[in-house]
Design a protein that fits this description.
Helices cover 49% and strands 14% of the residues. It is an alpha/beta fold and 236 residues long. It has two domains: 175 residues, Glucose-6-phosphate isomerase like protein, domain 1 (Rossmann fold, 3-Layer(aba) Sandwich), CATH 3.40.50.10490; 47 residues, Orthogonal Bundle (Helix Hairpins). The strands form two sheets. The chain has a five-stranded parallel beta sheet with strand order 5-4-6-7-8, sandwiched between helices. Helix 6 links the parallel strand 6 and strand 7. Helix 2 packs parallel to helix 7 and helix 4 runs antiparallel to helix 5.
Length: 236
């Protein structure tokens, strides 16, 4: 697992923060300087924070627990979906439903309903529904899958969440804090890094920056899963 180099982070624009007038003073320790009214993130701090986040994520994966990936911003959705699927982790990329974690039992019932509709639509022995009913069910299934598809196999609360843009995903952060779920996040200069357990100072608007950071963390998870598999194989 090769960590992103400084040049790679520069090329991806990880260092570009927001305009100074939009900054959150609590990000001061992570800011290198101001350039033409824009805050520049200290990539040394980004690198250090990446080390801590990757090590913690690897350990969580090694212990067999789940990390939920959360990013509903347009430029992050595809990246987050691909990363989460590559390590078989749950993800939310359409919208965060209020109570997705704090009211998990209700969310599980919705997932069960979605799966039941799927079975009805694919079971060739089910012949007592009309074409119109089938079309209605198909549309409902598509709509539900967009919101719940990424957590369809999540049977219990995740042990941690990874978030892109904590201001955009403030509901997810609040629910995680309430439940004691560990939080990892890309945190830009307009945010409060103290809201998460493992802040990673970074541009959270650039798709290149998002991909660089996210795929590195996904690889850390992959290593943890591999080590878990090796240990389980040795024990059997």
């Amino acid at each position: 697992m090769e960590k992103p180099s400084y040049q790679q982070m520069l090329d991806a624009g990880v260092h570009f923060g927001h305009l100074r007038k939009k900054w959150n003073p609590k990000m001061r320790p992570y800011i290198f300087k101001e350039h033409k009214g824009v805050h520049i993130i200290d990539l040394n701090r980004t690198s250090d924070c990446l080390d801590r986040a990757a090590a913690a994520m690897k350990q969580i994966a090694k212990s067999g627990k789940k990390i939920m990936f959360v990013a509903t911003k347009k430029q992050a959705r595809e990246i987050i979906t691909r990363a989460a699927q590559s390590v078989n982790m749950p993800y939310v990329t359409d919208r965060w439903l209020g109570g997705m974690m704090t009211n998990f039992a209700t969310i599980r019932r919705s997932v069960k309903k979605m799966n039941n509709i799927e079975r009805m639509l694919t079971d060739v022995t089910v012949t007592n529904i009309t074409k119109k009913e089938r079309l209605t069910l198909s549309r409902e299934r598509t709509k539900m899958d967009r919101v719940l598809g990424g957590i369809a196999n999540l049977n219990r609360l995740p042990s941690a969440i990874f978030v892109v843009d904590i201001m955009h995903e403030h509901l997810a952060i609040q629910e995680a804090e309430r439940l004691g779920v560990r939080t990892f996040a890309m945190v830009d200069t307009n945010s409060d890094p103290n809201l998460v357990d493992f802040p990673i100072p970074s541009n959270d608007d650039s798709s290149k920056a998002i991909e660089l950071i996210t795929m590195y963390l996904a690889n850390a998870i992959k290593e943890g899963l591999a080590e878990r598999g090796t240990e389980e194989g040795a024990e059997s």
